Amino acid sequence: MRHLVTLDDLSNFEIEQIFRLAAGMQSQHDTWAGICRSKLLATLFYEPSTRTRLSFESAMERLNGGTLGFSDPSSTSVTKGETLADTARMVTNYADVIAVRHSWAGSARVIASHANIPVINGGDGSHTHPTQALTDLYTIIRRKSQIEGLTVGVCGDLMYGRAAHSFALAVSRFGGNLVHIAPKGLQMPPWILKRLAQVHGQIPVEVENVTEVIETLDVIYVNRLQEERLPPSVDAETVRGSYLLNAAVMKNAKPDAMIMHPLPRVNELAYELDEDPRAAYFEQSANAVPIRMALIASLLGLEQLILTQPPIRNIEESSHQCKNPNCVTNHETYLVSEQETFRGNEDVNACAYCGQLVA
Ligand code: NCD
Fold first, then answer.
1. In total, how many domains does the chain have?
2. Which domain holds residue 326?
């Protein structure tokens, strides 16, 4: 059974296969409509969403499949204390593929290990958001043909932004050069930096303000402050409004730079940029549909995915309790801690659910 819990579940070759299929579905929709007839997608959204859930549903329905699910967990048995594992077992009987979003890091992995059908992570806490990263890379490739050699700035709340995490790891897998731009206290977390350095051989440039590097960037990927995830130790007042991409800043950017944002935006990306031909964020949200169409068809086995390299992770049981309070293992008590190491990098030792480094 293939799942997409993190991007580590796909080889680079498979990601490129998904991009080719998405491009075909985008340009020749009638050829593909019907491929998911009689298949059902369950969308289990325990957290707010507009684009991700709607684009998943749109993708499935454009392939003539059906959808069911919830976007308000307060109307489900969660309120009675049902576990993720039991929900997963049950939904297996009602649908053919699951898309899940939840506020606990590692939650999609729990669903995947208890469901007998493919599971797609639509965002798990501040951990990862792999389908957003696929959409982001695809959008870059459609404008710039390739990622390799591009200088890619990831800007904003890099500590708690799951879209930023998946995006940075994905860019580096495809040979982009990362520049991390974040105010103090919101820099990329150690587990991402360690992975970038030891698995992908990349030490990103780190700065606090986008004006320091704007001339060098081919891509500027902005993220909102993840207010709902800030721990009490971070004073929201001091970081709120501490970064902004606007026309004045973009004056010094390359004429063919790309402005990206996973959306929703709050106050970090000025509306005056919407008419700038470098703005690519609405293109990004549009590309979410063909990408999710291609992914659903591939995971359902309706299109062959060719795994060209084995997964790079080794996973084993661990006696360490994960230190991340938001890790699913600290919420669902039946789970056994597991840790992952990377082939050839046995010293990158992380919780297999949420990625947090095991000291
Ligand atoms: C992102 C998310 O939910 O992580 N949104 C999305 O799926 N496009 C980004 C965000 O909420 O900031």
1. 3
2. 314-351
**Selected catalytic residue, list 39, 53, 62, 101:** 101
Residues 138 and 265 in one domain: yes
55, two tokens: 């684009």
Q: Indicate whether 210 and 75 sit together in one domain.
A: no
| pLDDT tens, per residue, the chain with 359 residues | 899 999 999 999 999 999 999 999 999 988 898 999 999 999 999 999 999 999 999 999 999 999 999 998 888 888 888 999 999 999 999 999 999 999 999 999 999 999 999 999 999 999 999 999 999 999 999 999 999 999 999 999 999 999 999 999 999 999 999 999 999 999 999 999 999 998 899 999 999 999 999 999 999 999 999 999 998 888 888 888 889 999 999 999 999 999 999 999 999 999 999 999 999 999 999 999 999 999 999 999 988 777 666 667 889 999 889 999 999 999 999 999 999 987 777 677 899 999 999 87
66 within 8 A of 47, measured Cβ to Cβ = no
- Residue among 45, 46, 51, 265 whose CB has most ligand 1 atoms within 8 A, to mutate: 51
Whole-Å CA distances, 354 to 201, 243, 344: 22, 27, 21
- Dihedral sign for Cα 332, 336, 337, 339, please: negative
Please indicate whether residue 109, judged by its CB atom, sits closer than 6 Å to ligand 1.
no
120 CA → ligand 1 middle, Å:
15
52 is catalytic: yes
Q: What is the CATH number of the domain that holds 265?
A: 3.40.50.1370
Indicate if 292 belongs to the active site: no
